Amino acid sequence: MDDQNKNLILAVVLSSIVMLVWLVFFPPEQPQPASLADPETGSLTAPPAESGAAPTATSSDTPTPSASPQGAETLATAPRVPVITPSLEGSLSLMGGRIDDLLLTKFAESLDADSPRVSFLRPATELSSFYALFGWAPGGDLTFDDVPNANTLWELAEGETLTPETPVVLEWRNAKGLTFRRDISVDEDYLFTIVQSVRNDSGATARIAPEASLERVGEPVDLKGVFMLHEGAIRQKDDERDSLTYKKMRDMDDDTPWSYGTNLADVAKVNGGGWVGFTDHYWMATLVPDHDTPYQSILQYDQSANTYRSIARKDTLVVGPGETVKSETLLFAGAKEWDIIHGYQENRNIDNFDDAIDWGWFFFLTKPIFRVLHALNEMIGNMGWAIIALTLLIKAILFPLAYRSYVSMAKMKELQPEMEKIKEKAGDDRQKLQQEMMALYKKERVNPASGCLPILLQIPIFFSLYKVIFVTLDLRQAPWVGWIKDLSAPDPSSIFNLFGILPFAAPDPNSLVAFISLGILPILLGISMWLQQKLNPAPTDPTQAMIFAWMPWIFMFMLGTFASGLVLYWIANNTITFIQQYSIMRLQGYKPDVFGNIRASFQRNKKPDAK
């Protein structure tokens, strides 16, 4: 076996490992059914603390008595305040002041013309509820009844509809002379600003701690459950970032730092500048306390209510008679659009906020690749053509290495007669054969391993681009041409209905038949790989020839269910590689006989006539 064939086999093996790893380790999991929350059970609560001690917040294992005279009013019938922005539509409930009803107006559930908008935050009266609560933990002589909680019915003091131009103010007074206000504003994208204040007209000092919580009942119904994507709790604590899946939150044990109420929790002290919340595939809700304010970042699972919580609890504030204290918390609730969250990171001083996108282990590649792809898409206006432009740019950067590789391959072709003579002369003496070969390579200045380097560099680029296509919102429902309406999804065409000619639908993408229901792009991928092979004659060894003959079509099936954007990248990469290799080999005096190699392959596969 000559060195060129060794390099080709190495390339095949490496590429096969990449594909097999993806198919074995990244299968989708079925989401677990969500439970129905009890809207009467408030979850942002606190027991009475000893006089002079800091408040201690607990979970909602035991329903909290309502702090409102109308505590029997249910969440379903409580008054609501409309929320309308260019990006959001929904409402907040005056029961608890919950922000619990948001639709993402710029994003549809599917490509269907009548598809509903994406429902993100949901009230506790619905399955898979997800909402934000804000409140205070009592300390000193204050009790549950003295602070607003999840069951408190607030009064709408100012405003009627929450818009970027019109904030709203909620107000509630307790029986001890404390007046609580909540000023809520929202920008044109996804950022709410919640300013909580308490005025002390009681004549006695009050101790109280501001708190905010994101409550998620059950796992999200659209949970992907794949290894390459983090879905679950996420937080930035000083210079570190934690990511806990829903399973890890359920599996908290006695090794957890300490308990939060009656439930175990992961509690971290943050000096300032952090954030905490939950991230989905494309959407995210996070709480962002004041940048310079220390707080406790708490991740908790309440088994009795099947509720996951991300909590930001600030230090205790002392409110003297006649004084007013305030506490500000930001709430991001929306789509992980990179330019928006990066803008918040820069303009609102939110540390590492764009890292809420799961860039993965190859972040040093995925982040710049995305930035370039994002910029190309902004310039061209079409993500499919942007992917092709990105492929051209990557190939241009790697061209010096590719040039050396193709030149070496061309020289290896020229050395074939000399190599055959050395093999005949050496016979079975392997040591002599290697010595003679190395002497020939040194004399002709040929590196037989140079052909592997571009392939090795392509593997992390392929992984990184797949990550970018899978996790970033830019590819979701992004069209290219004609039948490709979503580059983040597999090619919807199918050979089973002759790509739409026959009057019946293609197989369901989630069915087993989808594996062999090839679309146009996977077929073009197989053809491009096959043509790339034909730049060189088939190996003389029958086993090697059979392996190489099958590889394009095996990859065609393996990649058939991958995202169209990734298949498009591979097709573009193969096409550019073919042109580069053909041109460079011609410049080196070797003329690849593509059509001759194709004819030879058909002749080898043709069965001899029976005699």
From TrEMBL:
Residues 80-371 form the Membrane insertase YidC N-terminal domain. Residues 33-80 are annotated as: Disordered. Residues 383-586 form the Membrane insertase YidC/Oxa/ALB C-terminal domain. One of its GO terms (molecular function) is membrane insertase activity. CDD domains: 5TM_YidC_Alb3, EcYidC-like_peri. Residues 53-69 have a biased composition (Low complexity). This is Membrane protein insertase YidC. It comes from Actibacterium mucosum KCTC 23349.
